[in-house]
Fold each of these.
Amino acid sequence: MPDLEVVANIEELVSNLELEIAALIMAHIENALDYQLKASSIYTILISGQLVKPKMAKTKTIAVSEKVGVVSGWNSLNPKWTEFIAKNNGISLSQNETLVAEFYQNHIEEFNRYNYETKKWDLDSESEPGRHYRSHAEKQISVIKPCNSIGVSRGICEEDCYPYFCALA
Ligand SMILES: [Zn+2]
């Protein structure tokens, strides 16, 4: 895994860059913060149980890019959530772990070049190794709605999504 560091002070990081590039990065971050708020508010609605409570509510994650939101997992997107969130939050909910698997397979050489390989999880079924980490909301949205800014309802996972996004970048 590449040696990654979380940036504590983004203004400091961009201060050495060309003004135009620094401004662009800051604009992307501002969008990401806006998407993060949207992701958090969708998370709050879904776990409230007023619609249908997600299974394993506390381990669910929401990621938002532009007008699209992803609920982590697979085969667990409830039509009631989709309808309510579209109406209430103006976000179209989506979930498609298969697209992540296809994207990874189609770019496996590039991912390998940057030392990224989807981690296996202890509870992955033998026929679908890597499915757990592929289903993470931030990874799904990077394929479903590629965008320079992503907001996530909680911290991005360090084990697999950090090295994934590093290779993707
Ligand atoms: Zn992850």
Amino acid sequence: MFGIGLGNLVKIGFRVSDHILKQQEIERSRTASERARLEAEASRERAEYESRRYRRTQLEDEIARDSVAVECPNCGATGNRIRRGSTGFCEFCGTAIQISSSGIAYIADPIEKAKALAAEDIKRKS
Ligand SMILES: [Zn+2]
């Protein structure tokens, strides 16, 4: 009737609870390492985002420094700022305005206009 014996029952009981504890421990360490992995990934992404934003800000500063206020050679509007040595578009009449490296504005030739349009297109898509 008491074939198993009390001592054995207690031993089995310990073994079962041992097993459960071990399982819980494995589960906990798995969640912890998963959490650590996700945190590392998030911090990597944050760092990448920050450096990308920093590079973009630098580029914007550079453009702002190099840009000049120009009077549109077509409509006479004065609100445009365009980078030296590049081609931009009048905000008012859409004329392609080319700026020489010394800051002189003139109506862009068709090739410069096409290049500037393509660049704007790429900027819009990115
Ligand atoms: Zn204009």
